[in-house]
Amino acid sequence: ILQAFRKAIGVRIKEETELIEGEVVEVCVERPATGTGAKIGKLTLKTTDMETVFDLGQKMIEQITKEKIQAGDIITIDKSAGKVAKLGRSFTRARDYDATDSQTRFVQCPEGELQKRKEVVHTVTLHEIDVINSRTQGFLALFSGDTGEIKSEVREQINSKVAEWREEGKAEIIPGVLFIDEVHMLDIECFSFLNRLLESDMSPVLIMATNRGITRIRGTNYQSPHGIPLDLLDRLLIIATTRYSEKETKQILEIRCEEEDVEMAEDAIAVLTRIGMETSLRYAIQLITASSLVCRKRKGVEVSVADIKKVYSLFIDESRSTTFLKEYQEEFMFNELAGGDAATMEIS
Amino acid sequence: MPSKWVELLTAARKTALLQEGRRKIHFTMSDGAELLEEYDVRSNELLVRKWRRKSALGGQKGWEYEVGEADLTAKFAALSHGSEHVVESHENPICFRCDTKKLFQWRIRNLPFPTSTYELSIRDQSIVVRTSNKKYFKILQIPDMERYGLSLNESELSFAHANNTLIVQYKKPVEIITDQDMLMVEFKKMKVTKEGDAECNQS
User: Fold this and answer.
1) Which of A105, A141, A306, B163 is 20 to 30 A distant from A326 in Cα terms?
2) ipTM beyond cut 0.90
């Protein structure tokens, strides 16, 4: 939890990084003839004053082929992170009429040295700083995701250092939000730990969600509202949620349609809203994708009421599924209601 | 009155070692930066000076060479096992500083162009090397001069080209030479561990 807490706090800090910026003269990637083994890549870059050949690593070759970098492009390479960014085409290549679309930007070829040092502001989380400092080879651990345990002394050290940076104006702290869903699943030890963390001066905004009423706190025999101990509950603001109204449901569905790039007729949305109100919103949302597929199958542009009706008959919702199951329970495997004679028949 | 550079070095934590005919001195500064200097035992010339500074977030970075030639094989190895992504090819010109007692000197190898192509000038307190065929460009900074707060003078600058190598020279000012001699005397007084001297108990 502490790790999650620290991940939720961002620190914005300035750091110097090495950048390579220049115009691509030549890219050349060679595959070994046997088909196995590492690829060899060479990249020639130039500025108005100089030209340099670079040897490329595997990751870099992949990126360059992915970004479709070719001669005449102006690119920057972040040396430590190994990231390539395309800035545009060189002005000297503006004469090539072929293969330029409207989005192509023309950029001046950079001057001076290829390798430059630039101040870059980037945002890291406290957890990442912890990881970097916890071991000498911290950077590797950050990428593999295996961090091991971070000692509390390291964390304390980082806290004081970050506070120092903040005073000097070198860094800026962005408190984040930590969202814990199904909070009743936490046990009493977690809660007391949370209590402690909330009191520290660098704590993020904590949001917890639960759908339980008065239940037992995990790890104890005490009953408490929402399964949260009362002392923690006192420090919280409780936000009650209400059922969505019809208008809200419609709005959510419209947003969802936009998100999934589904065009839907006005009356189809109305039908879907009705379904959403009567069954569940999740079911209605799932119908969007399904109905758009049906619509595409009949080569339609807009999802109509007929499509939704079809999908509604194909996929059943929760309450219909329950009634259906009750009806045909006997014909399924492992049924327990009429279990007796079915089992004896199989044995004989 | 000792200069800031001398003060910085005397304040740092030092360890010295004699190895392979070199006097190696390791400094740890108060801000956590490390400095390694290597002097030839016989001629007392500075062969290597490299820095390892902490990154802004406290992570370790590699050694940065101020004087001396960096080991390139390590870089190519890093490229092949994936911890480095871009490395300059060995076909490129290689530039490194190798000082003599009286001169700051840079050697730029693998530069095949004739002598007439090179143009040297001084701009923004650094030496600018450019070629008229637009193949090579380099800004040479002299951190020593910055540390002493001295400005560069074009008349002290000279260059020569032979065997595919461009040699750039700049005369060291008097202040730097005197300090350098004084530091050398100090370094010789330091207690040094010779190779194989370190105790290594088996049990």
Assistant:
1) A306
2) no
> Which residue among A43, A60, A132 sits closest to B58, beta carbon to beta carbon?
A132
pLDDT in tens, A310-343: 777 777 777 777 787 777 776 766 655 544 444 4
The DSSP symbol for B63 reads -
The answer to whether B139 contacts chain A (CB < 8 Å) is yes
Q: Which residues pair with B158 in a beta bridge?
A: B169
Q: Of A14, A54, A170, which has the smallest distance from its Cβ to B87's Cβ? A: A54
Domain containing A219 equals 177-233
SS3 B9: helix
Distance, CA of B189 to CA of B27 (rounded, Å) = 16
Model pTM score = 0.60
Under DSSP, is residue A75 helix (H, G, I), strand (E, B) or coil? strand
CB A154 within 8 A of CB A147: no
How many whole angstroms separate alpha carbon A20 and alpha carbon A14? 19
Four-way CATH pick for B103-171: 2.60.40.1470, 2.60.40.790, 2.60.40.1120, 3.40.50.1110:
2.60.40.790
Report the chain B residue with the minimal C-alpha distance to residue A77: B86
- Is there a contact between B58 and A136 if contact means CB atoms under 8 Å apart? no
- The helix-helix angle for A281-297 and A246-259 (nearest 10°) equals 40
Taking the Cβ of residue A244 and every Cβ of chain B, the question of whether any pair is shorter than 8 Å is answered with no
The span from the CA of B111 to the CA of B18, in Å, is 35
Band (A344; pLDDT cuts 50, 70, 90): very low
